Amino acid sequence: MDDHQIIDMYWNRKEQAILETERKYTKFCFGIAWNILFNKEDSEECLNDTWLAAWNSIPPRKPNILSAFLGRITRNLAIDCFRKKGAGKRMDTHIADICQEVEGLGNIISYTLDDYIRKKEIIQILNDFLAMLSARDRDIFIRRYWYMDNIRDIAKRHECSESKIKSILFRSRKKLFSLLDE
Q1: pTM
Q2: What average pLDDT does the chain have?
Q3: What angle, rounded to 10 degrees, do the helices at 135-145 and 93-101 form?
Q4: What is the 3-state secondary structure (H, E, C) of 97-157?
């Protein structure tokens, strides 16, 4: 079943939409949650919460790309779950590595209401940055910092060494930092 049919079922409040969404997107959404949580039960709980959030969000929203819509919901829920589970505990090394790699962005990007205009500018800079990367480098960057894949899996996906992936990510971050610092 294609995404437009699934979205139409949500709009018509047919519960079959949830079953079709689950059938089509479980593997995709579970992968996103797993890369953040590394816990089967928590990842499955995020999936259930994703289906519920989709049910509650469509309508009034009508996503253009259902996979991106569901992926963003799953990612946000998994990050929230990670924060709740990790409160007061030592941070998982996988997530800590990602945080360390992009810690410089924290000094440049602010999420307060006072910085709303700057946030819009940053979004445009990020879009331009991603557009200027080669397809391979863009995929590597997104796999690491959006899907939070580990370096080993990205290297396997692109059939190259982990050190090459680290080098590509370092150069990409350096380009992004220079764009954000202008």
Answers
A1: 0.70
A2: 86
A3: 130
A4: HHHHHCHHHHHHCCCCHHHHHHHHHHHHHHHHHHHHCCHHHHHHHHHHHCCCCCHHHHHHH
